[in-house]
Amino acid sequence: MFKENNQLGLYSFENELPEVVRKRLDRTQEKSFYNLVFRNINERDYKALFSDKASRPNVPVNILVGSLILKERKNWSFDELMEQIMFDLRTKYALGLTSLETMPFSRATLFNFQNRVQEYESETGINLLELTFDRLTAEQLAELKIKTSIQRTDSTLISANIRRYGRVQLLVETLLRLFRKLEKADKEQLIAAIEPYSKQGSEKYIYSLNPGELPHELEKLGKLYHRVLEEVKDKYSKTPEFRMLDRVYKEHFIVVEGNVTAKANEELGSNILQSPDDEDATFRKKRKEESRGYTINATETAHPDNEVQLLTDVAVNKNNIDDSVILEKRIDRITVKTPDLEEIHTDGGYGSQAVDKKMSEKTITQITTAVRGKKKSVEIIIEQPCDNGQKYTVKCPLQTIESEKTKTRHKAIFDTDKCKGCLLKAECTIYKSSGRYYFTHADYLKNERARNILKIPPERRKLRPNVEAVMREFKTKTRAGKLKVRGMFKASLFAYLMAISINFGRIYRLNSQNGNFYYPLLLYLERITYPFSFLIFLNRNKECKLKWA
Prior knowledge:
Layout lengths: L18 H8 L2 H8 L24 H14 L3 H10 L1 H6 L12 H18 L3 H16 L6 E10 L7 H15 L2 H15 L2 H7 L6 H23 L3 H13 E4 L2 E4 L19 E5 L2 E13 L9 E8 L4 H15 L5 E4 L6 H9 L3 E4 L12 E3 L9 E3 L4 E3 L1 E2 L4 E4 L2 H4 L9 H4 L3 E4 L1 H11 L16 H8 L12 H27 L5 H9 L4 H8 L9
Helix pairs in contact: 3-19, 7-19, 8-9, 8-10, 8-11, 8-12, 11-12, 13-14, 14-17, 20-21
């Protein structure tokens, strides 16, 4: 049964601490976390996870969510988290635990909570931790009066916690995982064919092979896969192991005239299964860096007038999805959260026709630090007069031409006689095309995007690189860019929890610089009214102003 955690204890261990210790506690991150994050977690968002029937109340949601945030912020394991909650007074205070006597929950409770959040996302498409991040961020942006009209975005590769499999080893391992799930009678029918693999295991079996045997091994495995799938599909088709084997079979083999043939390595896409332990992870190679996992895309405010910049949006995707596709999909969500967005700074990887069209519709200026594709040796500028896109002005270094509308495109015809005196004519594609230049509205938008950076003040042209520091903040909590978890859902949890932590850390540092650690008056009232526990209760439940950490 759902119950909100709105009843703090009348007495707290804080009141038993010596004065000098209380003063030290007032200035800790944990006390700021309690005021800035813990007390602002909207528990009602999680009500659907619990039974409507009268039953035992749930563990307070803000304690569970706060614990998960602290775990990622401190880079703790689950065991370390439980120990900190049990023995560390600062951690207890951060989670609103006023008693030293009991543990608020067990590890199993925390795991069950995550499973419920995952099931809810599968049913509704809503990740409740993302919703918590959005709500906290909205409150922080409003309270700190942060301008969101200028933002910047970037992405980073993040690897799943999986081992690297070779092709044959992956096929063997996937086969053995289904074989272990078979009942004894079903195993006996296949034992002769699978025993060479099951006897050694996938890793030792691969080590026993010579490189020249691999093509033959692929052919043998393809036939075995076909046989196993046919023999066990009636009984095991609904198991995850069968589904995975069937997926791998379709990804690696093709049936030609009744014969099972292995696909060439070049035919295998980046979407193929990378590991039986993570069905969501994909493969990508970027600047000689190989990654099997996901990308984290983060957007943050970047207005020069802001005292502090905060993350406004975080998204986790498969790593083989282009940055421009991610931005096209996320920009709607970003503008809902920050409707005054006017200017977004990106690198060249976020540019595309679809993004240009979306930005034009939303009247957002995209500032890119580079443009994809080969740079043209002769600069062509396309400008659109106010005539509903019927005519454009096209400029080269020597001429300015008004375009004409064709059936599908626009055409500008340059005077080749004037081109003959141009020093760039040897490299000019227009001159080589007898002065004809064809383009579309999409080309105009791309041209505009390339020149947007020249239209803003020089001091705003270098805003984007600072967002790379955000990517490093995510990476510092991983093992050389590798997560401790597997699967898209858990990778997303890591990203949302870290985003909350990053924003909190920035506000805490800002308050530290300004000396705003606590409510002096509130603390004073608590201490002079210590004998009157009811007044303590009222004081502790007052709304906490965000600007006071």
